[in-house]
Amino acid sequence: MYINNKSNSIEDIINKAKLDLYDLITILSAESDEDLELLRLKAYNTMLDYIGNKVYMRGLIEFSNICTLDCYYCGIRKSNNKNERYILSKEEIIETAKWIASKNYASLVLQSGERQDEQFISFLVDVINTIKEETKTDKLPDGLGITLSVGEQTLENYHRLYNAGAHRYLLRIESSNSKLFAKLHPENQSYISRIEALKNIKKSGMQLGTGVMIGFPGQTVEDLANDIIFFKEIDADMIGMGPYIVHNDTPMNIYLEQNKKDMLKIYNLALKMIAATRIFLKDVNIASTTALQAINYFGREEGLRFGANIIMPQTTPIEYRKEYQLYEGKPCLDDIAEECAICVQNRIQSIGRPIGYNEWGDSRHFLKR
Ligand code: 5AD
Ligand code: FES
Q1: How far is residue 30 CA from its own chain's centroid?
Q2: Are 40 and 306 in contact (CB under 8 A)?
Q3: Is pTM, for the whole model, over 0.90?
Q4: Which protein residues touch ligand 2 with a CB less than 6 Å away?
Q5: Which end of the chain is more exposed for a tag (fewer CB within 10 A), N or C?
Q6: What is the pLDDT of residues 242-253, one digit of tens each?
């Protein structure tokens, strides 16, 4: 009797019309170079079919490391007293935004630690209004596209930020497994309230970005496969994921040795996650994150080759960068924004991808809705 023992091959799976949890697990478990290349090609072609080959830029401004939360993995958690805490002035942010516009990047990301006080929200609203006014040009009649990444907020405040002119929001679920989420965060930071916040971002009208950390202790490939299904269920427009890298001044520093030992495996897993997410979600924006580059000098290029289409060049004023170390070995610490701009451009061009200068490059998934 003929036994089709190839029915679980990567080649068969990636050509299925619809993947299920078990297919995703098989994909994420792929190890051979041939299988990885098959996956990469399928993801790359899916990207070409659904959104094209352009890479869009989002200048990243880490405008404050003041944080009221205490995530066990994060270098700027409030209990880490080794950071000097800062918040950029409005003028510094506007100046950086104008620089970003002058580079034709078309979008920026404002990221900070989480604060919910009124002073913070009204500062942000004012900053967003001003960026919108001051970055309008012939090439960008609506000014810079603005993405926020400032944590869990109330629905009302999401509305205020949207009305001020922010039209995208990043908030990672970190893990869609509520038990793992609970292991990564103190008790007052609940999974339920994170989900609520994600839903409220959608309700506010902003494009929703989410994502997870890859390779933290206790996480399995089944968890990661479920994360991808979660992205679909929450109807995310944008995805940002990266390898988990231990920060020495956090409670999770006990995993330092293990994390170092597993680093290559985690890196490959991160690339497989990008590919699997592209194959499964198709028309979303996916970022090739800086954490990939912390492990491999060519990490961000690799992310793009595995199906990502967004890059966030570092544009935080240089004197603040070392205070915004979420994990060890974060790249671009000493490169002035101008150097990063040239470097990132070279990196993208080295793999033959065009850059979507002066285009917002919004998620096709969102625009289709
Ligand atoms: N390793 C990798 N990613 C991290 N982040 C925070 N700390 C770490 C770390 N040690 C990620 C989280 C957060 C994003 C802004 O940075 O996923 O959502
Ligand atoms: Fe920043 Fe290369 S990406 S210096």
Answers
A1: 23
A2: yes
A3: yes
A4: 314, 332, 335, 339-340, 343-344
A5: N
A6: 999 999 999 999
